Automatic annotation (TrEMBL):
Reactions that this protein is recorded to catalyse: (6R)-NADPHX = (6S)-NADPHX; (6S)-NADPHX + ADP = AMP + phosphate + NADPH + H(+); (6R)-NADHX = (6S)-NADHX; (6S)-NADHX + ADP = AMP + phosphate + NADH + H(+)
UniProt: AMP binding residues: K388, G389, N390, A391, T392, G417
Name recorded for this polypeptide: Bifunctional NAD(P)H-hydrate repair enzyme
UniProt organism field: Geodermatophilus amargosae
YjeF C-terminal domain span: 216-474
Protein's gene: nnrE
């Protein structure tokens, strides 16, 4: 797992480390790591042009020292000082010694010819939307030819939430120090950070235990282990699907197929789209009776395409009255938002899987702080909330959160959510902790999306078709990651 550390946690760890290291040592580690990534991106230093946008804090100091490293290797480095009176003195001196040029914000000509632009305007000390002069430079960098590289955090991005007010520096690469900050991987910030490179400056042992994580293939592989010698079709959990309707059988077919393709132990289906499911998936055990008559299961998925009429409501209430884990998706979310106590009174795990509009039905818009919003709803309902989006967020009622690292915008197509709930139900039936399981499902779903999107636009059925090879691939990558 990759821990995502808040600004407060990074500051606290830095304080401990700063007291134990010679003055300036941490900034040297940061700047050396930054220059190393820049050299890799440029391919060579000699003859290249680098423009550093330099604010009045330590983030600007990092940019100046990295600029000095690059200048010492033959790059033509120009530092544009936003606040000349407050530019990091030692960094400025180092850059000058190495032959770098220094200008002010009125003379940022270098931006139009740069091979690489370093954004050292503001890092974790940045507050609110970029000031006009900084915003102008960020916008010019966006249209210029140079590779935009953010120092620690793209300026204008809130490092904790990913919120962006107005303009932010549109990085293609972000070189971040000590720990990945949540704002680099979630919400709008994710789009501004590009590829995140983590430079180890020795903070690790001093960092508080993170409350948010990204899962890796290695972590997800642990949720996808093949059956053991002693397993049979029942032993690793049976999932029950309540989805679709006579008018909308598609959701039932996608959800059931996704469950089968994720962990094909045994999948039961109960609902009014039984004929469609039978025709598509002879492997599933199908009934058009109520969930209680479907046979024993270890987890339920309820909601995709069920509608919200009285019958659908009574089926939802029946499923939520069980002591089994339940995934509440789509139409079931609309009904649960009207009667949240159906969820609150449960003691078994519940996972809600809203997109933004479904989330808002529970009383508040998602807003710019997606992790915070998911955490609030999870705590309010005592349920895991999987908030879908470009970077899906999972929040446990205890505050632990996960931000998904996989996926593609190709997933923005009808029915892909039905596939996610099928995957999630299948994994939840194994009895693993619900929040991490939900995060694993989102990860696998994203990987299937990436695989299906490789050859062009995808439709939801392509995800189901790609699931088996994707499970195999994630298992394999997991083995490789863990060094086996
Ligand atoms: N504390 C440490 O030991 C280390 C800090 N490091 C660097 O230091 C950074 C934190 O430094 P600081 O605390 O000095 O703060 P920053 O340099 O991140 O931010 C403060 C500067 O940003 C400007 N600023 C803030 N909001 C702005 C806005 N909306 N528009 C325009 N300008 C704005 C301020 O005027 C000030 O010049 C980290 O992000 C990292 O890059 C690294 O060198 C590693 C070691
Ligand atoms: N822009 C996007 N980038 C990445 N993933 C997206 C994007 N838009 C949607 N998705 C993903 O696609 C899925 C859509 O689910 P949902 O909205 O429930 O669709 P449906 O109800 O049609 O099945 C979710 O997993 C979501 O995270
Ligand atoms: K920055």
């Amino acid at each position: 797992m990759i821990g995502l550390s808040t600004v407060a946690d990074v500051r606290a760890a830095e304080d401990v480390l700063l007291a134990r290291t010679p003055e300036g040592a941490l900034m040297q580690r940061a700047a050396t790591g930054l220059a190393t990534v820049c050299l890799r991106l440029l391919g060579r230093a000699h003859g290249t042009r680098v423009t550093a946008l330099v604010g009045g804090g330590n983030n600007g100091g990092d940019a100046l020292f990295a600029g000095a490293h690059l200048a010492a290797r033959g790059a033509r480095v120009t530092a544009v000082l936003l606040d000349p009176g407050r530019a990091h003195p030692a960094g400025l001196a180092a850059l000058r010694r190495a032959g770098g040029r220094v200008t002010g914000p009125g003379d940022p000509d270098g931006l139009d010819r740069a091979d690489l632009v370093l954004d050292g305007i503001a890092g974790i000390g940045g507050r609110g939307g970029l000031r006009p002069e900084a915003a102008r430079l960020a916008e010019r960098a966006a249209t210029g030819p140079g590779i935009p590289v953010a120092v620690d955090v793209p300026s204008g991005v809130d490092a904790d939430t990913g919120a962006v007010e107005g303009t932010a520096f549109p990085a293609v690469h972000t070189v971040t120090f000590g720990a990945v900050k949540p704002g680099l991987v979630v919400g709008e910030g994710r789009g501004y950070a590009g590829t995140v490179h983590l430079v180890d400056i020795g903070l690790g042992p001093h960092l508080a235990r993170p409350r948010a994580y990204q899962l890796t293939d290695d972590d997800v592989a642990a949720h996808l282990e093949p059956p053991g010698d002693g397993d049979d079709k029942y032993s690793r959990g049976v999932v029950g699907i309540v989805a679709g309707s006579a008018t909308y059988p598609g959701a039932a077919v996608l959800c059931t197929g996704a469950a089968l393709r994720t962990r094909a132990g045994l999948v039961r289906y109960a609902g009014t789209a039984a004929d469609g499911v039978r025709a598509s998936w002879p492997e599933a055990i199908v009934t058009d009776a109520r969930p209680g008559d479907a046979g024993r299961v270890q987890a339920w998925v309820v909601g995709p395409g069920t509608g919200t009429d009285d019958d659908a409501r009574s089926v939802l209430a029946e499923v939520l009255a069980t002591d089994l884990p339940v995934v509440v998706d789509a139409d079931a979310l609309t009904m649960a938002a009207r009667e949240p106590d159906l969820v609150r009174r449960r003691s078994a795990p519940t996972v809600l899987t809203p997109h933004d509009r479904e989330f808002a039905r529970f009383g508040a818009e998602v807003g710019a702080d997606r992790i915070g919003s998911a955490r609030r709803l999870a705590a309010d309902l005592g349920a895991v909330v999987l908030l879908k989006g470009n970077a899906t967020v999972v929040a446990d009622p205890d505050g632990t959160a996960f931000v998904n690292a996989t996926g593609t915008t190709d997933l923005a197509t009808a029915g892909t959510g039905d596939v996610l709930s099928g995957i999630l139900g299948a994994l939840l039936a194994t009895g693993t902790p619900p929040a991490e399981t939900a995060a694993a499902a989102a990860h696998l779903h994203g990987r299937a999306g990436q695989a299906a999107g490789e050859s062009g636009p995808l439709i939801a059925g392509d995800l189901v078709r790609r699931l088996s090879p994707t499970v195999g691939r994630v298992r394999g990558l997991g083995l490789r990651d863990s060094g086996a």
